[in-house]
Amino acid sequence: MLKRLTCLSLVLLMLLSFCSCGGDKGADAQLVYPIDKDPRYLDPQIIYDIGAKNIIANCFEGLVAIDSDGSIIPAAAESWETNTAETRYTFHLRKDMKWKVTSAAGRVLGENYETEFDSRVTAHDFAFGLTRALLPETLCPGADSLFSVKNAKKVYKGTLKPSALGIKALDDYTLQITLSQADPDFLYTLTESYCMPCNEEFFEKTGGRYGLATRYLIYNGPFYINNWADDVSVSVRKSDAYHSKDEVMPASVYYSINNEQPTRLKKLTDATYSAAPLTEKQAVELSEKKDYTVNTFPSSVTALILNCGDEALKNENIRKGIVSSFDYSVIENALGECDAPGLIPDSFLTGSLKFSEYRKETDRYSNPSPLTVFKKGLSETEQTGVSVTVLCSEENENTVRALMQSWQSVLGVSFTVYAEATDEVTLRERISSGDYQIALADISFTGNRAYSILSSFSSSSKNSFTFLKDKNYNSLLSEMKKADGIAPLSARAKKAEQYLISACVAVPLYKKDNYYGLGKKVSGVVHNVSGEIVYFKTAVKK
Question: Are residues 134 and 277 in the same domain?
């Protein structure tokens, strides 16, 4: 990774400065927010971790945005219209948008960039950004969400040239996107980071280093990155090039890199942080304090997750034997009622519809003869037995050990199971890297779309954590993108979710909320549907 800041004394000066001025009041407050880790890169078309997405969401602006009530509103596009079939969108862009080019980025463009570089944000920039997301070499984690665009899948597979895409800049301020079929999710997809604009001239000048350092980025959003200190922080400042700069309240936001969850409540109450993600226990404690706010989002699920890429668990019947011998009463006695209706959190959307409004109930997988189906899997794989380790958090270790006893009593000596407890951060990292067999863990999803969750289980997903290779499931996802309305889209989403549960890829146990605290008298902070993306444009501290 390229170094963004090398002077240790400057890093310390930044820390002292932000900690002392994080309490500044009024519209020009300097705010502080923790993220788990240092982003490896900040290229909007390829980022996938939450911290990076938060930064990009505040430094870039897409064609459209999502209002606090879940409605699509204008952003870089001041208006748009569609044809009757809703397969052609024509976006009319604002004409007052400019790229924020820092002096460091200017040196990348050349010494005469102030007079020679066209700093307007145009339809060509959005066309180039969307096209980049669909190029196979980009490895965009959300590319499949754009497969409803005409010829997108063929371009992504390399069988058609990018010029065949249904993405055209008709002129500097008119962008036309043609779909192969209507997509009720399409406008919502355009709010994702990989749909942000990218200036082709600047991108080419970076020589393959776009997004690797502050000098290799330019911005069209309310903030720009002014410092990026390895493993310490990323700080952003209000952009004087933003079209509505007078509406941007904070002077700056300082993203402090801190994955130590237990420290966040104290840092929030001593005014080090302006806002922070919290545990449920911390949220309860903060809610009892005067002048603080806790925002709650039903956006995660606790589940038993099976690694389908593991040699012992690739076979579906082996997974079915393990899952159907699962004793839910053990979990309920230890952690409460297993009330999760499925893998998709209630707040996530299909089109403009909350998935909870459509899905009434999702059936759990069950088999009256778990040992029989388990032995069938052993026979199919020519194994005499299976040995697995269940990974869990330290607080859930006793629950897993009780569960192990029930498994052993049903499956007998042909199934050997162990427990391994670790801290929450390590647990998340090992699941995302595939370094586990079975895990009892919270699954938190980014974005706001039911499709984004379901696509993370596909064999082509960069965000896959179950490593499922299943052509039938991939076909269900393809059918979702062909839905011609919200009702069929929701029905197909439910079918795909049920398939994952029936194939014993994941066992949803109970619903969990994500909690976010606001510092004393901090307001105007806006979250996305899941709560994990925090927008600071209108944030103030009284």
Answer: no
- List alpha helices for 60-195, DSSP H: 103-109, 113-116, 123-134, 152-156, 186-189
Specify the CATH number for the domain of residue 88. Answer: 3.90.76.10
Same-domain status, 34 and 121 = no
Would you say 184 and 485 are in contact if contact means Cβ atoms under 8 Å apart? yes
Structure tokens of 173? 């301020």
499 and 530 part of one domain: no
Average pLDDT value over all residues in the chain: 89
Residue 441: strand, helix, or coil? strand
Provide CB contacts within 8 A for 89, sequence distance 6+.
80, 81, 82, 176, 177, 178, 179, 186
CATH number at residue 281: 3.40.190.10
Region 403-410: mean pLDDT is: 90
Q: Which domain covers residue 339, as residue numbers?
A: 299-514
Q: Is residue 196 a contact partner of residue 42, using CB atoms and an 8 Å limit?
A: no
Q: How many CB atoms lie within 10 A of CB 141?
A: 24
Question: CA–CA distance from 237 to each of 65, 240, 263 (Å)?
Answer: 21, 9, 25
Residues 248, 379 within the same domain = no
To the nearest whole percent, how much of the chain has pLDDT over 70?
93
Measured from the Cβ of residue 182, the count of other Cβ atoms closer than 10 Å reads 17
